[in-house]
Amino acid sequence: MQYGAIIQTGWRGFSRNALVLVGFAVLYTIVAAVVVAYGVTHLLWQRPLQVVVHLVGSVALLTGALLAAKGQTFKFGQLFSETQQVFNLLGLHVFAAIAILLGLLAFGIPGIYLSVAYWFSAFLLIDQRVSFLDAMAGARALVTPHWFDVAVLLLVIVAISAVGFLACGVGLFATGPLAICIGAAGYLQLAGHRS
Length: 195
Fold this sequence. Notes:
9 helices
């Protein structure tokens, strides 16, 4: 993997669409906070509503990051072009979490392997419009030969996000979408796409 090219592609895509991505991150945070505040008095609906908000927000950010990493400029509404993948993303989260948890319980190493191997599965699910099981298998096949390279990229992404967190959390509105754009650029490079 060419880390410099990945970071540069992610940065260019983010900077080209920064207003939309940061604006969405702020809006997503506000909506999530309202759902949590509303849930204090309506506990029955809080969890399902939080899950829906999280899934729609995740699909939107993944879609935006993929568009940005492919060199496209987009509008706010285009973030929601792949919302039909919400149930696939839910299945992906559930099955990947179970697999990773079982791997961690089985001496830890399999869980660490799977947590890295499945990291690109959400990008693959949105980009290729496949089922969550196909996305998990495809991501594992894509990442396994480059597992250590992807693990290093994930550490870089975590470091970028940590910088945003250190700025009293406010920086996450920018570094969060930037990190996802870099992740999308890494996925696209590994999958052989041209930006």
